[in-house]
Amino acid sequence: MRPWPLLRVAVAEQSMLPALRPGDWLLARRTRRIRPGQVVLAWHPSRPGFLLVKRAARRVEGGWWLESDNPAAGAVDSSRFGPVPEEKIVGRVLVRYWRPRRARYRPQLSRTVPLLRPHGTGPAVPGGACYRLLCG
After folding, report:
1. 43: closest CA among 4, 97, 7, 96?
2. What residue numbers bound the domain in which 24 lies?
3. CA-only gyration radius of the chain, Å
């Protein structure tokens, strides 16, 4: 049986700031077909069970050179362990998302007509197609 082609992982460290933050969730496609510049998931070459989220920098002899976006965070990337063999590549990240927050009850808002506010600052106004809903 083939594994599900999509997988979900949570970002745990700061090595990919500002693109990815701790607590972000990633949806990735299982594939070894990657290109330079893509954010990928890969197994650490010398630490079994340790999944990395890194940017594919370039293909080199021996595999892929993976880099962190934030090397100042003490990131563990190919500069420490060398190229990652192609068979250690798990997939490429398709999308980043955040866990939805539960909407809180706001007694100052109407329960029948949602108050909308222009994106940015300004007073709340009822209605309007290019306004966003205030939702806790």
Report:
1. 7
2. 6-97
3. 21
Residue tagged 């293909």 (tokens):
59
Left if phi > 0, otherwise alpha if psi is -120 to 50, otherwise beta: which for 127?
Answer: left
Calpha distance 31→7 (Å, rounded): 11
> pLDDT, tens digit, for every residue of 25-59?
999 999 999 999 999 999 999 999 999 999 999 99
Q: Report the predicted TM-score, pTM, of the whole model to 2 decimal places.
A: 0.70
Residues 6+ away with beta carbon under 8 Å from 47? none
Q: Is residue 28 part of a domain?
A: yes
> Residue 6 is encoded by which pair of tokens?
């999509």
Indicate whether 116 and 81 sit together in one domain. no
**CA atoms within 13 Å, Cβ hemisphere of 9:** 25
Residue 88 DSSP symbol: G
